[in-house]
């Protein structure tokens, strides 16, 4: 998918972030303490964050574009570094 408004080499910043990471599959770890109504199981058996019909993580507060469960967000979300190597790779893939 090409999005001309996003530059893969541009720095991600809260005020301009497209929140692409909030559309990735978030695999939950046993130590994650996420409310069960926000999770689902894939056919493969993986326990993941649920997504809405548009592909967004259901924990995203769309009116504020932030995580509604930030204090108890999954481990993988805690490790995701804005403008880090994985963030840049996701943004680069999105702009293709």
Measured as a percent range, the helix fraction is 10-25%
Number of alpha- plus pi-helical segments: 2
Mean of pLDDT: 83
Spatial sequence of strands, sheet with the most strands = 1-2
Class inferred from helices and paired strands: alpha+beta
* Uncertain stretches of 5 or more adjacent residues: 1-9
**What is the CA-atom radius of gyration, in angstroms?**
14 Å
Give the N-to-C terminal Cα separation. Answer: 6 Å
Largest sheet: 2 strands, antiparallel
Total strands: the figure is 4
Helix/strand order: EEEEHH
Shape: globular
**Percent range for β-strand residues:** 5-15%
Structure write-up:
The chain has two helices and four strands; from the N terminus they run ββββαα. It has a domain of 61 residues. The strands form two sheets. A two-stranded antiparallel ribbon has the order 1-2. A two-stranded antiparallel ribbon has the order 3-4. With 96 residues, it is of the alpha+beta class. A hairpin with a 5-residue loop joins strand 1 and strand 2.
Helices, strands, pairings?
Elements: E1 39-41, E2 47-49, E3 60-61, E4 66-67, H1 75-79, H2 85-94
Antiparallel strand pairs: 1-2, 3-4
Notable features of this structure?
two-stranded antiparallel ribbon, 16% helix, 2 helices, 96 residues, alpha+beta, globular
Q: Could you give a short description of this structure?
A:
The chain is of the alpha+beta class and 96 residues long.
């Amino acid at each position: 998918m090409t999005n001309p408004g996003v530059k893969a080499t541009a720095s991600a910043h809260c005020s301009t972030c497209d929140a692409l990471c909030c559309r990735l599959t978030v695999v939950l770890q046993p130590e994650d303490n996420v409310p069960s109504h926000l999770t689902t199981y894939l056919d493969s058996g993986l326990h993941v964050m649920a997504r809405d019909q548009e592909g967004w993580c259901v924990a995203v507060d769309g009116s504020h574009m932030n995580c509604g469960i930030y204090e108890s967000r999954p481990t993988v979300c805690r490790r995701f570094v804005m403008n880090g190597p994985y963030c840049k790779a996701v943004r680069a893939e999105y702009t293709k």
